[in-house]
Amino acid sequence: VLTRRSVALIGLGNVGRSLLQVLRSQAPLVRERYGCEFRIVGAGDSGGAAVSQAGLDPAVALAAKARGASVASIAAGAFPGMSAVELVRRLPARTIVLESTPVDLRTGQPGLDVCREALGRELDVVLANKGPLALAYAELAALSDLGRAGAPALRFSACVGGALPTIHLGVRDLAGSRILRAEAVLNGTTQGILRMMEAGGSYAEALAEMQRRGLAETDPTLDVEGWDAANKVVILANAVLRQPTRLADVAVEGITRLTAEELRAATARGERVVLLCLAERAGDGYRLSVRPTALPLDHPLARMGGDEMGIVYYTDISGRLSMTTRETDPVPTAAAMLRDLIEIATS
Ligand SMILES: NC(=O)c1ccc[n+]([C@@H]2O[C@H](COP(=O)([O-])OP(=O)(O)OC[C@H]3O[C@@H](n4cnc5c(N)ncnc54)[C@H](OP(=O)(O)O)[C@@H]3O)[C@@H](O)[C@H]2O)c1
């Protein structure tokens, strides 16, 4: 039996365009293996939206973005200037909303209102944008199946390390275990910058290279000042450690004050500096931080190259689990959105 689900993509930047490609390239596999077919009934960017009950052709949307045009320039069903929330209001019932607009840590918009509107309309949501969860995890969990059985699904595995399944490992595979400590490198941009600076590159060149690969945040100060990593810690703490957490609960320090000399001095001592996300037990809960940290070279997170991210969970009965991912472009993040989509469509 074939399950047909409508989807809408909000945000057609590095991640959204990769998702368009992945929906196309993996369609035969998804049909054969899971019996699912996804039809794109809506797409939106900063210029407006396009809506089509019959389905938008991903190639046409990609061609518009390649020309630097809005998806609202696609002739059929185009609405220049239509907001993301208005697009969600027009989507047919049972559409799954795939959101990848930029992080805004002041307002959470447009992602936050997209989530509220979609979940309020009983539409399932898959996020790559961390902003809404970093600012309003408890509110969004309560509106979704995270807080209430039978409510629309909210999935966000792409938000905490691209294709690295940090959330699934913590929630599903460590069932029955206590997490004693979690250490992670979850910001690819700073990992790339630190490893390039160590090898003699300048900070500015290294940041430009991460932007060229489509891996830096739209506003890269979120990366280098530690806020992107902190957003991921907030999501991990809420979803995996089950500790109600807001951004203000995380001690944050970025990499902007680090010099190439300090990085090389660490190497000479047999250490490597990473931007470490840390959850350590403190009393009944966890103390949370993001800060540059020197790790011994044989630590799983010190062995990683400039295009890797990783996590180490220390547990009471599952031992020490380490996992890394190597990602050189945003396609693995789109792959993580696809896995959430398949989970929703097949459950
Ligand atoms: N890049 C990665 O490797 C990566 C990995 C994991 C998670 N993420 C997350 O994914 C999200 C997107 O990242 P990205 O690299 O794809 O960013 P991006 O390249 O800057 O793309 C952002 C997209 O959102 C659209 N947009 C901006 N404001 C909008 C608004 N008010 N209404 C509707 N659409 C709007 C932009 O429209 P225009 O096309 O018209 O400019 C663009 O299509 C971010 O939240 C980021 O944290 C990214």
In a nutshell, what does this entry contain?
This protein has 347 residues and is of the alpha/beta class. The protein has helices spanning 14-25, 27-34, 58-66, 84-90, 111-120, 131-143, 166-173, 188-198, 203-212, 221-224, 227-239, 260-268, 331-346; strands at 3-10, 36-45, 48-51, 78-80, 96-99, 125-127, 154-155, 179-185, 250-252, 271-282, 285-296, 308-315, 320-326.
Number of helices: 13
- Which descriptor suits the 3D outline? globular
What is the strand tally? 13
Strand order across the largest sheet? 4-3-2-1-5-6-7
Task: Briefly note the structural class of the backbone.
Answer: alpha/beta
Quick check: average pLDDT?
Answer: 97
- CA distance, first residue to last residue: 14 Å
Largest sheet: 7 strands, mixed
The unique ligands bound to this protein are:
NADP nicotinamide-adenine-dinucleotide phosphate
State which percent range the strand residues make up: 15-25%
- Indicate the radius of gyration in whole angstroms: 20 Å
Helical content band: 25-40%
Low-confidence stretches: none
Q: What is the H-and-E element order?
A: EHHEEHEHEHEHEHEHHHHEHEEEEH
Record the SSE blueprint.
Elements: E1 3-10, H1 14-25, H2 27-34, E2 36-45, E3 48-51, H3 58-66, E4 78-80, H4 84-90, E5 96-99, H5 111-120, E6 125-127, H6 131-143, E7 154-155, H7 166-173, E8 179-185, H8 188-198, H9 203-212, H10 221-224, H11 227-239, E9 250-252, H12 260-268, E10 271-282, E11 285-296, E12 308-315, E13 320-326, H13 331-346
Parallel strand pairs: 1-2, 1-5, 5-6, 6-7, 9-11
Antiparallel strand pairs: 2-3, 3-4, 8-10, 8-12, 10-11, 12-13
Helix pairs in contact: 1-3, 1-13, 4-5, 5-6, 6-11, 8-9
Bound molecules: NADP nicotinamide-adenine-dinucleotide phosphate.
